[in-house]
Amino acid sequence: MGTSPVQTQILEKSSLSFSTPLFLLNSLSLSLSPLQKAATWSPSFSLSLSLFNLRIYLREILGTATRSQPRSGRSWSFSGMDYSQRRKPYFLGKFLVACVLIVFCIITLKQSSNHHSSSTSVFSRHESGVTHVLVTGGAGYIGSHAALRLLKESYRVTIVDNLSRGNMGAVKVLQEQFPEPGRLQFIFADLGDSKAVNQIFSENAFDAVMHFAAVAYVGESTLEPLRYYHNITANTLVVLEAMAANDVKTLIYSSTCATYGEPKKMPITEATPQHPINPYGKAKKMAEDIILDFSKKSDMAVMILRYFNVIGSDPDGRLGEAPRPELREHGRISGACFDAASGIISGLKVKGRDYQTADGTCVRDYIDVTDLVDAHVKALAKAQPKKVGIYNVGTGKGRSVNEFVEACKKATGVNIKVEYLARRPGDYAEVYSDPSKINRELNWTAQYTDLEKSLQIAWTWQKEHRNDWIVDLVLQGHLYEQYGLGLGAALMFLSASFEALLTVLPDVLKCALLLYSDYLDWIYPQSDCTKALLQLKFICCFSNIYGLILAFMGGVDVDEPPSKRVKVSSVELGGLSNTSSPLEPACPLGGIMARHLPSQGNEDMVGSKGVIKKVEFVRIITKALYSLGYERSGAILEEESGIHMHSAAVHLFRKQVLDGNWDASVATLQKIGLLDDNILKSASFLIFERKFLELVEKDRVMDAINTLRYEITPLSINKKRVHELSSYIISPSQRGLLGFGDLTSKATNSRLELLEELQNLFPPTVMIPERRLEHLVEQALNVQRDACYLHNAFDSSLSLYIDHQCGKDQIPSQTAQVLQAHDNEVWFVQFSNNGRFLASSSYDKTAIVWEVHEDGEVLLKHKLIGHDRPVVMVAWSPDDKQLLTCGLEENVRRWDVNTGNCLRIYGKSGLGLLSCGWFPDGEHFFTGVTDKTICMWDLDGKELECWKGQRTTKTSDMAVTKDGKRIIILCRETAILLLDKEAKLEQLIEEDQIITSFSLSKDDKYLLVNLINQEIHLWSILDDPELIIKYKGHKRSRFLVSSCFGGFEQAFIASGSEDSQVYIWHRNTGDLIWALPGHSGAVNCVSWNPTNLHMLASASDDHTIRIWGLNRVNLKRKEAYSNGRSHHGNGNSKW
Question: Which of 225, 464, 575, 955 has the fewest CB atoms nearer than 10 Å to its CB?
Fold first, then answer.
């Protein structure tokens, strides 16, 4: 197959200037060639112009053809070229030249129009045996598939589309499939332009109309309802009027199941009452009513097809669905699934999981597009004059969104991530059809009912062809990259931005275009789209003539090599300082200090994955600059980007609120848009409330009463608050609650607070949330932190410059210090809650308080002497000012940490105490007693309460939760008792092996249990106890070995071991990270510093305590006894 004109233009497009306004003209002139058959332009003056002449003209505009040096003065750059803002002389002469050329262009265009009009076209006459069908919206997803089916069955097809939602890629495929003359023509037009529509009908002999053209997204319709009523209802009226005026008798109308709303009974039949609940459904229902009313007084044949959710694509792979990127948020679920599977978006966002359905997601009837167009073609064949047929087009089977997503996962082979959001406004829970009527009367039955297979076909097309459409289309592809616009929107954009366009054209063309535009206003006073198209034709025609004249007169050296194009210096590419104007060079390195953000071929998006909307990105940066106090920088960014942080209405509204212009601010609310009635009422209430409070503060009582009576009360919301406001008037003593005090100093702050309240009320698209950029950055850092497998660092260590990743070197693994003040085995060790102290206990009948210095060095503070038996454990008070020590089946002593004095001894006659622990209030503590009871004491030694129960006599572990409600203690060798003393509730953790020790997590949610079989079990105790994970690897055969939580958010587990090593595991995975050698005897106990994540202590039978760190501080090993040891016994110093 030879290269098509469009393909040829694509191959040549790399030689074009991609300057913003000039590239727009290039793209339009090149890419309108597929429309030649429909446009009234002769071949010699079609918009597919000579690149040679157009580039001559463009270079003359830019004044770069014969220059070899940069211009001085003010200039700006497009694509590395320097264009001066120079004033051209002799404007009167150029005016006369422009007039002459205008006349010539008008004559030429009129001649081409007359030539086209006078020529006979097969589309303009009825032909026996050939049915000519107008397909509105034929460049869209469903319309293009319908056109393909019609062409395949030998219908003659005319497509009319404004390309606001359609895709020229579909038209190009149809043209390639059916290139024969008289089969297919495409006309660019907007159905809202009644003059253009009437002209299309008058110049073409249509036998029938398939009316697909419509915007069709439920979510979008709730945001832009007027657009939907115009586009669907009003445009349908225009089509009907044109049909009536031109005697077109058959209409196949594409309607929707959304007209039914949310029926109470399923399945939906054609007799189901229509109660639409969103603007899309309402607009379609209105259009149906207009068609039905019109058909009553005419002999039209009308078929209305109400179809359900459309999926799939052409089984032969020729066509598919290629929605516009900016419409993904509102688009079909299949498109969103494919975007997620392709990696275009990070995952699928399902809106609504609280519907009254089996799995909580809404249920829909998914109809394959091939079946749908088959129904349209059969409806066309069955249509009869003076009869109306209304049919539901669906499979009759309801599928939930969750079922659809699972089918899509199987079809694509991708495990799509799913996030559930709040339900969409205007959506309904369940809807599926009863297709029995269309089965019976049109002999139609859905054939493609295998959901997974339909999605597989569509997915195959998505992978093979979707990107081709984007690359192939010079017009839509590059216009979208530059502006995010389709062709119709681009033409309207040019019309609306006429003055901006003039700023980049030479004086001659400026004058000519202005004069020609006045001429168009006279000829076409109502048709903006037609005027915009003719303006473009005129510019291109004028450029050819002007370029030829210049070349003939030798005004341009067409053979000038590219090397003579002037490059802008790095100084001119500089950034902006706070003292420079936007047109002055500032930082010489500004242009090369950072690369431009990638846009993935779409200028509306930035970032390597193309998921960040440029407008939103710029706005939150602007907001952050203002929040940081960089007012000038924020203003410059708004000016340079052309993207304003707020709309003019929002800006005015904010100013009115801050100025206290209350009534005007409420009026402005109505102009902001995107606000529903509830938001408007709530916002008005807040504004009038602030007005009322300021009036009260100023003693303008009558004005305040009037505001309350006539402005606040009629809103009928928050009646409780209305009564409170009334009390401020009735009781002057209540006015102090207003919080004003000094009105002049606090009113401004109150208004700022009001703005923040309003901002929280409004959608973020209206007013950007405060500190949004800060929130996003923190969120990104949190994600990095959470993804860091071995994360063990405080948040202050996180940096924006690099991605965060911790290694094993962030886990304490190096011996930093060895403490040797005990004379025998060290049985227990524990850091204080603030991490500033360490306490240890030993078989030598002493306990020691160590002080942790800021540099990480640990020094002896007090040696506590007084117990008659080995000290089995210690317990820190909540404020770390006191320490409990427990002797082995002896008594408990309470010590002053600051002085080292023993404050009190606690014991029971004839019984020994086994363990101790503090209650959170710091005023009470508990002990385990050898008679298998648990006793609670006050600090004065009074025994307040005892709980009896089974327990052993060989453990010293006890714990109490921070709320003081639950006491945790070993109740027998293989069970731990969780005792809720308030609820009188007992729960058990039962193990198969003997329990040797346990420890409680800082958040009271988990319990770490050491067993005799050399395993450590992690239990969740938040609700019913549940075993989470097991840790293995350490050794234990004879002694009590204890473990602990530690690290950042207690993400690690450490334990002693009888093989003289310290073991560290990852808490969530159970992976062993370190086995640390160093001790020469069994390691009995470990403790992780709660405030220094890189410090771990271990106590051993080798009489030492090792302090483990990251080897950041090279501490000289010191003998503990050389640090001025101070031994204390019962408050008296002893040697």
Answer: 464
Name 754's Cβ contacts closer than 8 Å, sequence gap at least 6. 657, 686, 687, 690
Task: Assess whether pLDDT exceeds 60 at residue 570.
Answer: no
Indicate the helix (H) or strand (E) that contains 502. Answer: helix 498-502
Can you spell out the DSSP letters for 425-471?
Answer: TT--SB--B-THHHHHHS--------HHHHHHHHHHHHHHHHHHHHH
| CB count in 10 Å sphere of residue 228 | 25
Q: Token pair 């860091």 is at which residue?
A: 788
| Interatomic CA distance for residues 422 and 427, integer angstroms | 11
Q: State how far the Cα of 1021 lies from the Cα of 1027, in Å rounded to an integer.
A: 9
The answer to whether 500 touches 513, Cβ cutoff 8 Å, is no
Q: How far apart are CA 541 and CA 543, in angstroms?
A: 5
Q: Does the pLDDT of residue 742 top 60, yes or no? A: no
Burial zone of 306 (CB within 10 Å; 0-12 exposed, 13-18 middle, 19+ buried): buried
Lowest-confidence range among 4-8, 591-595, 672-676, 1103-1107? 4-8
Q: pLDDT digits over 688-718, tens only?
A: 999 998 888 888 888 888 888 889 889 888 8
Indicate the helix (H) or strand (E) that contains 291: helix 279-296
Helical axes 507-523 vs 528-552, angle rounded to 10°: 150
CATH 3.40.50.300 fits 120-478, yes or no: no
pLDDT at 252: 96
Residue 546, both tokens: 């002007």
Query: DSSP character for 49?
Result: -
The strand pairing partners of 642, in sequence order, are none
Catalytic position from the list 280, 448, 516, 546: 280
Q: Using DSSP, state whether 714 is helix, strand or coil.
A: helix
Closest CA to 258 of 303, 214, 290, 218: 218
- CA atoms lying within 13 Å on the CB side of residue 511: 16
Question: What is the pLDDT averaged over residues 878-890?
Answer: 93
What is the rounded distance in angstroms from the CA atom of residue 1063 to the CA atom of residue 1079? 12
Band (pLDDT 50/70/90 cuts) for residue 507 is low
Measured distance CA(517)–CA(277) in Å, rounded: 44
Q: What ranges do the domains of the chain cover? A: 120-478, 605-641, 649-770, 808-1133
Q: Is 843 a catalytic residue?
A: no
Class at the top of the CATH hierarchy for domain 808-1133: mainly beta
Alpha carbon of residue 113 to chain centroid:
50
Task: Give the number of C-alpha atoms closer than 13 A to the C-alpha of residue 182, restricted to the C-beta side.
Answer: 10
pLDDT at 575 over 70: no
Specify the length of the chain in residues: 1135
DSSP code of 268? B
Read off the pLDDT of residues 241-285 as tens digits, 9 standing for 90 and up: 999 999 999 999 999 988 988 888 888 999 999 998 889 999 999
Task: Tell me the residue type at 616.
Answer: E
963, 920 Cβ separation under 8 angstroms = yes
- Taking the chain, what is the end-to-end CA distance rounded to the nearest angstrom? 106
Strands (E), 124-202: 132-136, 156-161, 184-188
**pLDDT digit string (tens) for 131-145?**
999 999 998 989 999
Question: Cα–Cα–Cα angle for 645, 648, 651, nearest 5°?
Answer: 65
Task: Name the 3-class secondary structure at 480.
Answer: helix
What angle do helix axes 451-472 and 168-177 make, rounded to 10 degrees? 100
Mean pLDDT in residue range 433-461: 91
Please say whether the beta carbons of 435 and 396 come within 8 A: yes
**Highest averaged pLDDT of the listed ranges 338-342, 410-414, 605-609, 1052-1056:** 1052-1056
- Say whether the peptide bond before residue 267 is cis (omega within 30 degrees of 0): yes
State both tokens at 710: 């006539």
User: Apex CA 256: angle with CA 255 and CA 259, to 5°?
Assistant: 110
